[in-house]
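ok so i was messing around last nite and threw this chain in just to see what happens. nothing serious, just curious
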Amino acid sequence: MTVFILIFITCILHILWNISGKKCKDNEAFTWLTTFGGAVFCIIATVISRLITKNPIPPSGFFIMAAASGFFESAYFIFLFWSYKHIDMSASYPLGRGLAPVITLFLVPISSMIFDIKGHGSLRLEQLPAVITTLAGAVLICRDSWKRSTQKQNAVKGLTLACLTGLSIAGYHLIDSQTLEKYKQVTEIEYLGFVFIFMLLFASIWYFPKKNSIQRIKDEWQSGYLGVLSVSFIAQANYIIVLYAFSIAQNPTLVTAARNMGIVLSLLVCAIRLKEKITPMKAIGAALITAGIIWIFLV
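result:
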């Protein structure tokens, strides 16, 4: 029961900080600010952790993996908040979260060749019905967004970015799980700190060549600093709660499956907080995605 309560809390927290991203005025400046804030939080936690544990410096392979994770995580934030500029969160959120586990199944063989990652977790025949169910839900959400959009080009952009968000989630989840398994001398908090250093590097390379980048950061901070702080802190606190839930759960697979109930919850929260229209087609699509993902993890 304790694990279920913790996972329910993480689902709500995850949705709430996503709403802050949806409501920001300048999604690009907001992305950099929240990456910077998350980096400060995680680096401080990493320094404290290393002072306590006094772990040795990891080998170079660890930093390559951390850099790869940082690249995918920075891409995740960029694509996520960019998609919110074009489509409803109640469409983008289920697509990004829902497609990630499916994409992961197909990424495992590729990642095993590039990063020397173990090949477990690739698609199995018995998972095909679950994958088809998830994809059917994604198609319904895409169709609903396309049908209701008055600007079809924006709908295509938003839906594409939501799918790229799912790809980014799959990328860093796969790398994170295998890195922590391979380099057990590094704690989860320390690993997250190293990842955020690379995230900030990639986000800065992406953001600062843009026109008036410094002034846009100042303007976004002045108009929405509470949203920036909430994402910077809550997103990392949410991750720590998830790690704790995994550590006390008797069946970690059930924890992974339960985390996806946030997809259905997101529709309710988006309807209340953002006044977004939840059509029957969108609701059915989200329900199919949720059922498909849980099915994938329980098969």
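not much to say yet. The chain has one domain: 2-298.
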